[in-house]
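User: quick one, sequence for these C-alpha cells?
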C-alpha cells in the first residue's frame, strides 16, 4: 500500500515537471520568428544648411587698401617746353613752378610764341635742352597754334618724333585749352603721344586775357590745378581716367 502511494507521487511529480518544461523560455520553439528589418532603399534628400545671420549684428566693415602715395619729386628736374601757353599772359608755368618747388623739385621752362608742332620738331631746341638740363620729367604744351589747320593728321609723325627724342623719360603732353572747336589736333596728339601721358585740356573753361585765347594768371592757375590732379595720379589711374577733363567755369 505504501509502495503504491510512493509510485503514484513520483508519477505526478514527473508529469508536473514535464508541464513546466513546455512553458520555460528554452522551449519556445513554437513562437514565430522575429521580423527581419528591411534595408531602406528610398533615395536620400540633400538638404542644404543655410546659415541665418543675426540681423541685429553690426555689419562687418570691409576696408580697401589706400591708393599708393605718389612718388617723391624731391631733387628732380622738370623741363616744361612749348608755345606761348607755357608763358605768355597765363600763369600755367607760374602755378606749376610753385607746386614743384613745394615738392622739392626744380622746374625749367622754355617756350616760343607761335611755336607749332612742326616747327618745334624740326628745330634742335629740344635736343639742346635735354643735354643742358638732363631733366627727369618733361612736360610739353604744344598744339594751340595747330588747332585750326585743315589737315592735322599730317602732324602725327611730328608728334611721334618729338616723343621719341625724349629717350624714355617720364613725360606728359598737355593739350591746348581750346577757345573754339579744333579741327582734330587734340585727337592726333592723344593718339600719337604715347608713351607720354596725354592730358586733354580742351574742355576747360578758363578765364582768358583780352585776346580771348591765352589764360590770365587766374586761368593759368586753374589750369595748373586740373593738370596737377592728373599728374599726381598713379599710371593705372591716369589710363583709367582717359575721359576729358571736367569743365571749369571762369572766375
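Assistant:
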Amino acid at each position: 500500500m505504501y509502495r503504491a502511494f510512493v509510485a503514484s507521487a513520483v508519477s505526478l511529480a514527473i508529469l508536473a515537471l514535464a508541464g513546466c518544461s513546455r512553458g520555460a523560455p528554452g522551449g519556445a520553439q513554437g513562437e514565430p520568428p522575429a521580423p527581419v528589418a528591411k534595408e531602406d532603399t528610398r533615395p536620400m534628400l540633400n538638404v542644404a544648411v543655410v546659415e541665418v545671420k543675426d540681423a541685429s549684428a553690426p555689419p562687418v566693415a570691409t576696408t580697401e587698401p589706400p591708393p599708393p602715395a605718389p612718388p617723391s619729386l624731391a631733387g628732380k628736374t622738370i623741363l616744361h617746353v612749348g608755345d606761348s601757353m607755357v608763358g605768355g599772359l597765363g600763369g600755367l608755368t607760374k602755378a606749376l613752378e610753385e607746386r614743384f618747388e613745394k615738392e622739392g623739385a626744380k622746374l625749367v621752362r622754355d617756350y616760343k610764341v607761335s611755336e607749332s608742332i612742326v616747327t618745334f620738331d624740326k628745330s634742335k631746341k629740344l635736343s639742346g635742352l635735354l643735354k643742358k638740363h638732363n631733366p627727369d620729367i618733361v612736360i610739353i604744351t604744344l598744339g594751340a597754334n595747330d588747332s585750326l589747320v585743315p589737315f592735322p593728321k599730317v602732324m602725327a609723325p611730328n608728334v611721334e618724333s618729338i616723343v621719341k627724342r625724349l629717350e624714355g623719360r617720364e613725360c606728359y603732353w598737355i593739350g591746348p585749352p581750346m577757345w573754339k572747336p579744333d579741327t582734330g589736333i587734340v585727337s592726333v596728339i592723344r593718339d600719337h603721344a604715347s608713351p607720354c601721358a596725354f592730358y586733354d585740356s580742351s574742355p576747360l573753361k578758363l578765364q582768358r586775357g583780352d585776346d580771348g585765347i591765352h589764360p590770365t594768371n587766374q586761368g593759368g592757375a586753374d589750369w595748373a590745378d586740373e593738370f596737377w590732379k592728373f599728374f599726381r595720379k598713379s599710371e593705372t589711374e591716369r589710363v583709367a581716367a582717359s575721359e576729358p577733363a571736367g569743365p571749369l567755369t571762369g572766375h
